Amino acid sequence: MDSFAPRLTRAAVWRGDRVDLVDMVMPRPVRDEVVVRIRLATVCGSDLHTVTGRRQSPCPSILGHESVGDVVATGPEASVAVGERVIWSVTVVCGQCARCRQGFTAKCERVRKVGHEPFDGDWPLSGGYAEHILLPSGTTIVTVPDRMPDAVAAPAACSTATVMAALEQAGELRDRRVLVVGAGMLGVTAVAAATERGAHVLIAERDSERRSSAESFGASADDGEPVDAAIDFTGSAQAVRAGYHRLDVGGVLVLAGSVAPGPTLAIDPEQVVRRWLTIRGIHNYEPRHLQQAVDFLDATRHRYPWADLVTEPVALADIATALRPPPVGRLRVAVAGQTADQLGG
Question: What is the DSSP letter of 77?
């Protein structure tokens, strides 16, 4: 392990009605734990749902689960080295329960999640809206190529990796008609990723600006005709129902946005049988999807303007101004965990 002198770090703590900047002692990593100096975090829609009361989350807590940063300290068994730029998984898993042993770590029986843990618990420095984060044992950590901007790397930890998991559930996409429902960060990413896999991609999105953004990433306007796969990122019961009824014979409906209780979906089992339909859901993702996310963004860095989807970063001290929907033309608000002077120091 490198020499590690105890010092203070700063984090933005969500209190339920406000955000407080709190100074705290940086933890010393043990075993395979890693301390990362956060360069940049992006604000996921689930955090916006938390601060607006639409989503239940531990409080107080340090929110934020899309981040990129530099390793500054490690335990002796860590898989990464000091100085490497990395991203990390949303889930922290035990690796021992039945689900983990079956390769289904996304639903580990003892899962903990970055940006979703209580500040007054045993892992207080657990979110991305901070100067540093402690990554415990069970976190997947992936190195980031030097050529990849921070604004491109950060969303990979949630939105891009989730898209990789969703497309895996959709199956073979080459020469298939794919309907992507919702043109937020996940939807636009799915459009590009499905296009790269040889699909003819249609976008269903009511907002004209977002629809235009999706079309610039490879989508065509929705023609209302049957599709081989429909992937929903909205969670809207109406949208899910519409996607289901668009499926052609052998079609697959993938649900990725239905993460809160909502109306039930009426399905005729006879139609599922006679038309060979499949309905699949995904929540979280597996380690392979995080690596796939980085590889995909790196391979397409010259084809799609990924960085243009993210705002210029606001300072951590101004985090409250970032916890709101992104401006028109952008899909993620960025928060700087460290200033340029701090990163250079």
Answer: T
